[in-house]
Amino acid sequence: MNKDLKIIKKKYGEEMMHLCRELFPTLLEQEGLLPKLLHDNFKESRSLVKDIIDNNLEEEFKNYIYNQVDVENNYEEVGSKRPEELLKEAGYKLYECHSEEEIQSFKKYYAPREALCTFNGNRLNKCFVFFAVKENVDEIKRENYTKPQRQDEYGTSVISIQFTRDNSHTLSIKNRYNHTVNNPDSTFGNNLDNIIPGLTNSFDKYYGMHQSYLQNSFEIPGYVKASDGKYYKYNYEINNIYYCENNVIIDNFEVKEYPHEQYIIFDYFILDLKNKQIQTCWNDMELEDSLPETIGTIKDIKIEKDGLNKNILIKTDNSDEVDVIITLDKNNRIIALKNDKVENIGNSFLKHNNSLTSIKLPSATNIGDSFLYNNNSLTNIELPNVTNIGEGFLYGNNSLTSIELPNATSIGNSFLYNNKSLTNIELPNVTNIGEGFLYGNNSLTSIELPNATSIGNSFLYNNKSLTNIELPNVTNIGEGFLYGNNSLTSIELPNVKSIGLGFLYGNNSLTRLELPSVRSIGSYFLSENDRLTSIELPNVTSIGDNFLYGNNSLISVRLPNITNIGNYFLYGNNSLTRLELPSVRSIGNYFLAINNSLTSIELPNVTSIGGYFLSENDQLTSIELPNATSISDYFLFKNNSLINIKLPNATSIGDSFLYNNHLLTSIELPNVTSIGKEFLSNNNKLTNIELPNAEIVGNYFCDECKNIDTVNIPLLPELEERLKEQGKQL
Predict the structure, then answer these.
(1) Residue of 92, 115, 89 lying closest to 104 (CA atoms)
(2) Residue 259: alpha-carbon gap to chain centroid
(3) pLDDT tens, 634-688?
């Protein structure tokens, strides 16, 4: 056997030896060349050949190796254009960052949970940082790409081009999706010429970014190219740190190897067996994790094999028994954790772990923020004694189907945010719930919160399955409560006093609602609910905009204590026949607009009325507004049935008052001084108008009113001639 093939077999396996004999017969003619090329470009790994074959990369691998023979001729020079000019031809604008503030200014382009680790700070200590932004970036929307691909138009509309500050100037082109897609730190194969030919040479020429290990583009899933020019197979990547086989970490492309006899690298932690310590693999305080402090001082460590997995058995200080068990999978990811003694868990506990499936913390009472924040695998959790839970608890976990927190009393924001699988939850002692509670959960069918008194914004936002909820002690509800739930048929809130905006917005199933204690209701209350037929709000005093907007079924409303009504009150309701608002004083725009059933209304204390009041109502026959002084535009616009109206104290009337009313025969407005345009235009029955104090009258006054006999109005110059021409008696 060829000597070189023996070396390849020993280091990379027999299958790689066969592949090399097939692909590189010419290179094998020169002794030592092919093993050196493999050694210089790939960390020894017996899985490399399988990964090449499984990904159908034999041809690319062949071309890559052959290009190493004459690496100096690998990139194309295109004239003498600067990087800015070339990127402009490709549709980008290039920015170089000289300060942390300049880097942070680009964070606005990244969606939540897709922001680069570059924004965590101190990147300029290690790298030269550039950003290239597409000139039409504002037109490229994230929501248009439901299945993100690393090099789709959105992903490459904002890219960060970074070179390490060492002599190799190792390049990384970072994608806008960041960790949402595979290997986002190798966009365009980390080859500038894949963006536009000549860009590699231009960065070298004008910025001095000569890449010592620049070679023909080659990319293999699950591998990262380090600053030593070699590809390393990695098990996982977290915050731009790649955790590889054999205790190797690639940190900002720098290779760090840890001896097996002293260290175990698991998840993003380093276990020092000799000094009995655990620490994270990074030094950035913003990325710190509280796992090490929950373990405390280690007295003894034992490693136990369990099939493909292994257990780290830890005895802590002053303990004679194992009280911490950490179970690792074959790639050294934490998949299970048991800690019998810890009581307080700090912030960011296992925040970047996404492989844990089971956790038991029987003594824990307090949990800080961002507990298992990025985990989407957990299916079993035991926290029997927890009382306080911070923000971001299990944020983004979509695997947990059940959870018991019998002693929890307080829950922070974003509890189980975007969990898609939980079907029931009991929190018997919780009193306070923060914002975003189970936001985006669309599977929950049962919930028990018997002692909750306060609920934050976006409670169960977009839940599609819950049909019944009882919150007997809740007094305050924030915004977006069960927004987008279209299945709820029953709700009990006997003690709630304050409700924020968007309460049950878009619910299409609730038919009856009683809120006996509520005083204040925000905007969009039950908007787009078209089935509610009965509602009782005996003590409400304040209602926001869009109250029951788009409800088509409610036939009766009684609000005895309401004083102010916002815009779009019951807009589009076609069924309301009875309305009692004895205390209301102010009414906003579009009050009951497009209602086709109401025949009479009494508003004894209203003084101010907004625009489009009952516009396009064609059934109202009588209305009394004894105290109204100000009436805005389009009052009863296109009403076809009104025969009686009383406005004894009105002083100001807007445009299109009773436009297109065909039945009103007489009207008295003894105190009106100002009238807008199109007053009672297109009225076919009106014979008498009393406006003894009018001072200002707009255009088209009673236009097309063919039956008017008398108009009692001061002889305003602009009206006199016109009314005489029409034969009206003044």
Answers:
(1) 115
(2) 42
(3) 999 988 899 989 999 999 999 999 998 888 988 999 999 999 999 988 888 888 8
CB 664 within 8 A of CB 689: no
pTM of the model: 0.73
Q: Around Cβ 36, how many Cβ atoms within 10 Å?
A: 14
Four-residue CA torsion sign, 395, 397, 398, 404: negative
Direct distance between the N- and C-terminal alpha carbons of the chain, in angstroms, rounded to an integer? 122
The rounded distance, in Å, linking the Cα atoms of 119 and 130 is 13
| pLDDT tens profile 137-159 | 999 988 888 788 888 999 999 99
Going by pLDDT thresholds of 50, 70 and 90, the confidence category of residue 21 is confident
Task: Find all residues with CB under 8 Å of 676, minimum gap 6, and list them.
Answer: 633, 653, 654, 655, 656, 657, 698
The residues, ordered by sequence, that sit 6+ positions from 1 with a Cβ below 8 Å of its Cβ are none
Which pLDDT does position 184 carry in this prediction?
80
What ranges do the domains of the chain cover?
3-73, 83-232, 594-606+616-625+638-730
Return contacts of 305-314, CB within 8 angstroms, 24+ apart.
309/335, 312/264, 312/266, 312/271
- In angstroms, rounded to a whole number, what is the distance separating the alpha carbons of residues 653 and 629? 9
Q: How many CA atoms lie within 13 A of 588 on its CB side?
A: 15
| Stretch (H or E) spanning 247 | none
